């Protein structure tokens, strides 16, 4: 009870000091407010950006490996001419991997065809991304359907003129929502729509099915030369549940070297790309960004902390008489110490709360202007409040200690 009473009186003294010196309080809050605003805004923006990027990366599959000609990541001195001379993945290799792999749950072949114009009667949509895929594609990628279905095995094997289209394409060409069963014109051919993907929305890595069309590989091979370098061919391997990505990768490397008849010691002429490569790079990038934002903000907070320390010294000087009277009436040193320390902490926490409030306003403004929602997470709020309180302790401890050590007689006689 004595401690609570002491704490209450300390808060009252701090409150009176803050109210009586509004301009001084406002100026002392400014540095802390700017510092907390900078740190939390950077952290929140990075968390939001990272979360959206991670969602995009997760679409590629956590246990999927992409056999491609080019690696996803390059070093500063990468030998691009060696990559350029590599052969492209072939359907024959996909078939051989299906026969030999013991760790793969599914292996698909897919290729980017082109960005083309698609028509239905008088409706037209440009820039549609066309992909030619083997039947196993539905097993290596997880899709949700707003309507219809994926290709049947017979449609894939015979190269039937069928397609699964993205939500935005269906919405543009078929406003009434009756896309399935209709015939659209692609690359000069009439193709029947058998399915419509569910809407995914915008994607930072442009990995979205909304503006994509999937076509059976055996249908497309009758229209274009699928061995052409421009089609970005790849083999996608999804590992079996319970088998680690490292095991799948190790087996694939051995199988691909065997299929391509590479001698021991000879370099791989293929790349095994996986999402962990991208995730690791994102971790490094965002660590640097977080550190930069933290250091910028910490300098602002330190400036604010020095300002609050100066204000506290001024406050001690102004209230020296009161301190002397309190000590002569029996106030202990720790009571004076806590009184001024709480005042410094309250000032800093108020600055932190103001900084968080401005971050919140900034997130609302960004959402209204750019339709991008920045998430102000609980962990960032806690970082802001705890950092403010810590700066309050650091900036207030010396003035508070100085006030607690005053001689009551000298304090009462001072002007």
From TrEMBL:
Keywords: Cell membrane, Membrane, Transmembrane, Transmembrane helix. Its main location: membrane. Residues 294-408 form the ABC3 transporter permease C-terminal domain. GO terms for cellular component: plasma membrane. It is a multi-pass membrane protein. Residues 25-254 form the MacB-like periplasmic core domain. It holds the Pfam family FtsX. GO terms for molecular function: transmembrane transporter activity. It is found in: Cell membrane. This is FtsX-like permease family protein. It comes from Mucilaginibacter limnophilus.
């Amino acid at each position: 009870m004595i401690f609570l009473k002491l704490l209450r009186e300390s808060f009252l003294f701090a409150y009176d000091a803050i109210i009586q010196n509004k301009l001084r309080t406002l100026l002392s809050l400014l540095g802390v407010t700017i510092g907390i605003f900078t740190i939390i805004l950077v952290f929140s923006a990075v968390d939001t950006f990272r979360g959206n990027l991670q969602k995009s990366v997760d679409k590629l599959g956590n246990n999927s490996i992409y056999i491609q000609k080019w690696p996803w990541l390059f070093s500063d001195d990468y030998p691009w001419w060696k990559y350029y001379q590599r052969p492209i993945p072939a359907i024959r290799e996909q078939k051989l991997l299906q026969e030999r792999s013991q760790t793969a749950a599914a292996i698909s072949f897919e290729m980017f065809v082109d960005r083309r114009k698609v028509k239905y009667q008088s409706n037209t949509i440009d820039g549609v991304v066309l992909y030619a895929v083997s039947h196993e594609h539905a097993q290596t990628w997880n899709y949700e359907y707003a309507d219809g279905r994926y290709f049947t095995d017979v449609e894939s094997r015979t190269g039937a003129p069928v397609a699964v289209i993205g939500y935005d394409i269906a919405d543009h060409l078929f406003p009434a929502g009756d896309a399935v069963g209709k015939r659209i014109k692609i690359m000069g051919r009439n193709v029947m729509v058998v399915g419509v993907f569910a809407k995914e929305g915008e994607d930072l890595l442009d990995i979205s099915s909304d503006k994509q069309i999937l076509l059976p590989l055996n249908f497309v091979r009758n229209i274009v030369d699928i061995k052409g370098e421009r089609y970005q061919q790849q083999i996608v391997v999804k590992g079996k549940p319970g088998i680690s990505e490292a095991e799948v990768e190790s087996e694939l490397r051995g199988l691909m070297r065997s299929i391509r008849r590479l001698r021991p010691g000879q370099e791989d002429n293929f790349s095994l790309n996986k999402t962990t490569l991208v995730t690791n790079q994102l971790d490094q990038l965002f660590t640097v960004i977080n550190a930069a934002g933290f250091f910028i903000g910490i300098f602002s907070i330190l400036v604010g902390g020095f300002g609050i320390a100066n204000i506290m010294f001024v406050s001690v000087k102004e209230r020296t008489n009161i301190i002397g009277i309190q000590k002569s009436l029996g106030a202990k040193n720790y009571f004076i110490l806590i009184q001024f320390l709480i005042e410094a902490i309250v000032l800093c926490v108020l600055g932190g709360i103001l900084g968080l409030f401005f971050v919140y306003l900034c997130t609302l403004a960004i959402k209204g202007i750019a339709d991008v929602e920045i998430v102000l997470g609980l962990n960032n709020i806690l970082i802001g409040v705890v950092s403010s309180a810590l700066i309050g302790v650091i900036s207030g401890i010396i003035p508070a200690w100085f006030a607690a050590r005053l001689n009551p007689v000298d304090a009462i006689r001072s002007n």
